[in-house]
Input
Amino acid sequence: VILTRDRRLLLRKDCVGAYLVEDDDPKRQLAQVSAHFGLTFERGKLLTRCAKCNGAVERRCTPEEVAASAIIPEKVKRSTSDFWACARCGKVYWVGPKSHKAIDFINSTVEPVVTMANHEMQQQQRRREEEVE
Output
């Protein structure tokens, strides 16, 4: 699915699977997309998908793999003990300042917006069901 604000893109014949995001405000955009697609927030699934290929980040790296990796900075190897790899592309992840910042943003912004949009969508669905009865 392509999320876009470009109405002209939606009119193209070769544009399939696109959704128009109408608001300029990022929080309201998130609420609109969440409500439309029925997105839910699951804390246990935070940071479990690879940013590169969307594969599952689930495989724990062995100490030998970490030591042999030229990709992981030496400073990080010395200060961090837990590393995970994407099962699809092998990209390595660890908990550090970037992940803490992402988690803070998710907790303070994403979770409340998605939860509220989902709640409002459920209320609208209940009202429609009551009207049918």
